[in-house]
């Protein structure tokens, strides 16, 4: 495809030189919606460095962060069209195209970081990636951000009843919406880069996100209460435009895959560290009240979410649920 290289058309090059010439002009435009100083922002940079190193500069990854190029509403379509070559959306946003991934959004399905790591790097990750059926898109791997927490401007969110009547921003995805519906809360779907402003102007009361996203987008500055609930897991599917990918020479594909594996390993460690460190920053830099969900409260949330487990089990099957809960390494 013309979109990833410009061949200068010279007739005098040998076949080998021609191949080198083609390779030397590959650019991967990678668009994402979060800040640079986040698990995804840093993983994107690490990936770009490793790709450049492994291909000796033949492949260049250009990063467009903070949604400057596309928001989470339109980045998927831009990838399908080949306007960009790589994105890494939250899997919540992909459930329309990969219905089985509903399982990943079930509240409390992830309980430990080691479990997330096993799911996103082991055999299960291969299986999850193979569920992508969109012929315009290829999945290359999963990156992590971390556990999601709840924030509100109105009350501490500890008992299921505390949510009642409040309005929360949600990212697209049926499971998260249903989770809040069971808590008798209202939701508004909104793209990530709009959240700060709607919280600031009090158009909505609260939201759920990782500490990293709450910190880097300064959401903690416009919220009164933060509950460390670890109720959901925010992970990303790293995807490339399929036609672009298939047109890459084999050796380049291998090098990119290797860079992806190394980046993912690095990202899984880095994300845990970042979220912990940024909780401390939030604590230091704002008067926000931080609450910790007790085991007893968690059990009440789980009870509230039981119908959602039932629904997803009916739709996707118990086997995948069990596999995510108890992944093999
Ligand atoms: C969100 O929309 O809140 C997140 O999915 C943003 C992100 O990419 O981490």
Automatic annotation (TrEMBL):
Q: Which GO terms describe its biological process?
A: transmembrane transport
InterPro entries in the cross-refs: DctP_fam, TRAP_DctP, TRAP_DctP_sf
- Which top-rank group of organisms is this from? Bacteria
- Record has Transport as a keyword: yes
Q: For this UniProt record, give its keywords in alphabetical order, as a comma-separated list.
A: Signal, Transport
One GO CC term on file: outer membrane-bounded periplasmic space
Task: Tell me yes or no: is NADP among this UniProt entry's keywords.
Answer: no
Family assignment from sequence similarity: Belongs to the bacterial solute-binding protein 7 family.
Q: Would you tell me the protein name for this molecule?
A: C4-dicarboxylate ABC transporter
Lineage of producing organism: Bacteria, Bacillati, Bacillota, Bacilli, Bacillales
